Amino acid sequence: MKIIQPREGETFDIELEESLLSKNRELADNNRKILDENEIIAIDVMGSIGSGKTSLIKNLIKGLKAGHRIGVIAGDLTTEIDAERLREGSTQVLQVNTGKECHLDANLIKRALENIKLKEIDILFIENVGNLICPAEFPLGAHKRLVVISVTEGPYMVVKHPFIFREADIVVINKIDLQVQMGVSAAKLKEDVLKINKKAKVVLTNCVTGEGVKEIIKCMNFQ
Amino acid sequence: MHELSVANQIVERALEVAKEKKAKKIKSIELAVGELSLLGEEQLKFWVKEILKSKEIGKDVQIKVNSVKAKIKCKKCGYEGNLKPANQDHFQPVFFCPDCGESDIQIEGGRDCVIKKVQVQI
């Protein structure tokens, strides 16, 4: 058979139509399957730098460790500080360093899951990299997405980052003990969240005293 | 915000298809970027060019970016279509139905980043 091929020097188009985000979504679906097969409920914990993601997870572990076996994947650019902080009370803690990346992605979680003894845990917290923009675009396969903000970040965190709040199941407003000093109202932040996402469960917390943590656990519907 | 990592993926894929076709040059890459994708078009163009600059095969590459409008469907009033300028009061559109103001809307398009085609020279 005669095959007509481009000649040297000729230019032609290669039609691809390839989505860059769909690859992540496929991997995320696969992660969800692995989690379900192992009867693990996974929570993706997102929030900006210093909002209290690690403190919140510490509090959640404290409140859940009596009845559950808990694993944590701690995402960070380069350090292991968070993994060290979370070791107490968790059966397994795995640090994932993204290097220069501003978010965890489904592929990193896939690799992390290969390094966790899945039969030995029933709850998995995934602490995302501190960032309110990029993680919104990269689902990991977790069952619930939780976003933490704090009053110390100012009054505009929700209206400035609608995407991540739109996709959240639970929104935690942390450091409510500092509302007066900061001149920022947690109730107003809550209102902003519900305006964008009326299905979100919004909980106000103080992770130093543990106030509000029980309510978050209730929102997670663990069996 | 993650233009660099997306640019790396684009370059990797373009180099792969160019190699498959035994191409000597990557002339252009055409992308479609959704307005809800959280990617800056200028930064994306910059990084793809910048990464390819150091490679003989891609040093003169042209990057075309077609912007894809967001498409939404309102779960309350049934509106189907684009967001309207009034929705875009910040660097990202805020997600309310332009007709009835409902927040419970389905995003049907404009979130993705797609490599449409790669033009190569043999």
Report on the architecture of this protein.
- The complex is a heterodimer of chains A (223) and B (122).
- Helix content of chain A is 34%, strand content 22%.
- With 223 residues, chain A is an alpha/beta fold.
- Chain A has a single domain, classed as Rossmann fold, CATH 3.40.50.300.
- Chain A has a seven-stranded parallel β-sheet with strand order 4-3-5-2-6-7-8, sandwiched between helices.
- In chain A, helix 3 links the parallel strand 3 (70-76) and strand 4.
- Chain B has one domain: hypothetical protein PF0899 fold (2-Layer Sandwich).
- Helices cover 25% and strands 31% of the residues of chain B.
- Chain B has helices at residues 3-20, 41-53, and strands spanning 25-34, 62-68, 71-74, 80-82, 105-109, 113-121.
- Chains A and B meet through strand 1, helix 1 and helix 6 of A and helix 1 and strand 6 of B.
Number of strands of chain B: 6
Flag low-confidence runs of chain A.
none
The CATH architecture category of chain B equals: 2-Layer Sandwich
Sequence of strands across the biggest β-sheet of chain B: 2-1-6
Q: What is the CATH H-level superfamily of chain A?
A: P-loop containing nucleotide triphosphate hydrolases
Structural class of chain A: alpha/beta
Question: What is the radius of gyration of chain A computed over CA atoms, rounded to a whole number of angstroms?
Answer: 20 Å
Overall average pLDDT of chain B: 88
Structural class of chain B: alpha+beta
Strand order of the biggest β-sheet of chain A: 4-3-5-2-6-7-8
Distance linking N and C termini of chain B:
35 Å
Treating each run of at least 4 consecutive H or I residues as one helix, how many helices of chain B? 2
Shape of chain B: elongated
CATH top level label of chain A:
Alpha Beta
Count of domain modules of chain A: 1
